[in-house]
């Protein structure tokens, strides 16, 4: 038994706060990290690793050992996890490269304090670059009940370039439930496709990296075949007795896939309009645009449908690509009598 296997085995945890996480497995962690090819982007001692809700730190340790960040912040506001993470930091003893923060990862104030006020990490701003930001990597566990909603907010930040994404294309490795992975990665044409899957495709390049055995049935063969994720034993998933063993890792790389190299999203589409149109069209996801576009507002069909390409007009909402949706959004924006969506549309989630 290795030192770290014994370290995690000797620590007891009787409460999970609704999270699921991998038991420590040096070989599996190594396979996952190598599959991600992180060493091709992040040079040792030249980037920061921000770990949000790292639970016991079983994957966090491997990321630190294999990538050697300048500073690795383990941010969690759950008392029992904080104590375990502090023990990990003390046992690891790699100088001040590992920092345990008791801030709340859900709060935006936590990041302002961490970066602007305390300067614990200092990522570079790389807004002009089309590639992934090489100075900051995010690793997070959002497998609890609130995780899906928070991840959807983070996806909105990928489009709007705020929160951590103000630094430019910050890559995020996110542990989620199988149902969350399925919702966000559903393919074009699937009857299960919803607006967050379209937004995921429009504003990120995302892949399914690894799943537990029981997750395969939930995710479905189409998604499994497309991404060919690593599959690990359900026995490696730590969770409370009231939860299942489904767990998946998604690699999210922000990228504006609806713009050309010379444009930004803000230059060609009002994201408030995008959000409004996408939400409205997915109310009836299986209807074609002939029926759905008139539902955007009174008179919308009269203006938009004659100007819409026949290819897009005959599609149902679940069949729309991000660029099909962009065509509709741009026409809606040009409509002289479009409603004031700021009055009619209350933002719930991106």
UniProtKB/TrEMBL annotation:
Keywords: Methyltransferase, RNA-binding, rRNA processing, S-adenosyl-L-methionine, Transferase
Intracellular or extracellular location(s): Mitochondrion
Presence of the UniProt keyword Translocase in the record: no
InterPro entries, per database record: KsgA/Erm (IPR001737), rRNA_Ade_diMease-like_C (IPR023165), SAM-dependent_MTases_sf (IPR029063)
Gene Ontology CC: one annotated term: mitochondrial matrix
GO biological process: methylation; rRNA processing; transcription initiation at mitochondrial promoter
Transmembrane stretches, start-end: none
Keyword Plastid part of the UniProt annotation: no
Domain of life: Eukaryota
A GO molecular function held by the record: mitochondrial transcription factor activity
EC id: 2.1.1.-
Family in the record: Belongs to the class I-like SAM-binding methyltransferase superfamily. rRNA adenine N(6)-methyltransferase family.
Function recorded in the entry: Mitochondrial transcription factor that confers selective promoter recognition on the core subunit of the yeast mitochondrial RNA polymerase. Interacts with DNA in a non-specific manner.
The protein's name in its UniProt record: rRNA adenine N(6)-methyltransferase
